[in-house]
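Design request, tokens follow.
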């Protein structure tokens, strides 16, 4: 039931976004976007602690509230726990077996504030539908897999080369903790965004 409610709420927000966009002030950053990020991830919880490389892909819509501030919904997917980019260049596997792993879907809101015509700050937050694998935090740890709901949040800064394209750096936090398996992860990433 919870998943159905999330899907219906997301669909309603995306359907309403073009209606709000009709009141956009001239020169505001409004419209659909897609962005991607890649960078080091860090789990800091007991036996699962470690660093890997993760990625995230998001899409959404923003409408302008003022000429330099826009907000809107977003939906995305990420894999935060077991990708080894350095192994692309050698004979080792890119997906590392035996490591703690975390991946899932996000749905939430995002905001972008241009403090100059080119430089911006951003923020995002919402629900995280995650699936993870790791060792339990019991006295006798066991290999465990869990699916659950959590939350995420992030901030970033960047530079827009044009109305359609910008790059930045960001920090994101993904809360994923259930039944003695804590895979909560943060990621510092390089980001790129294309706006339609």
């Amino acid at each position: 039931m919870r998943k159905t409610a999330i899907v219906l709420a997301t669909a309603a927000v995306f359907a309403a976004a073009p209606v709000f966009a009709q009141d956009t002030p001239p020169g505001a950053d409004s419209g659909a976007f897609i962005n991607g990020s890649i960078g080091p991830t860090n789990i800091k919880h007991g036996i699962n602690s470690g660093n890997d490389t993760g990625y995230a892909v998001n899409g959404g819509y923003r409408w302008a509230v003022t000429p330099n501030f826009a907000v809107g919904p977003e939906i995305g997917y990420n894999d935060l726990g077991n990708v080894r980019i350095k192994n692309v260049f050698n004979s080792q596997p890119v997906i590392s077996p035996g490591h703690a792993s975390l991946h899932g879907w996000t749905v939430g809101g995002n905001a972008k504030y241009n403090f100059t015509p080119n430089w911006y700050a951003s923020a995002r937050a919402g629900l995280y539908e995650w699936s993870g694998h790791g060792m339990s935090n019991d006295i006798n740890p066991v290999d465990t897999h869990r699916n659950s709901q959590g939350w995420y949040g992030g901030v970033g800064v960047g530079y827009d080369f044009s109305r359609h394209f910008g790059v930045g750096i960001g920090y994101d936090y993904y809360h994923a903790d259930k039944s003695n398996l804590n895979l909560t992860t943060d990621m510092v990433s390089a980001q790129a965004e294309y706006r339609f």
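Comment from the thread starter after seeing the answer: thanks! The domain at 2-195 is CATH 2.40.160.20 (Porin).
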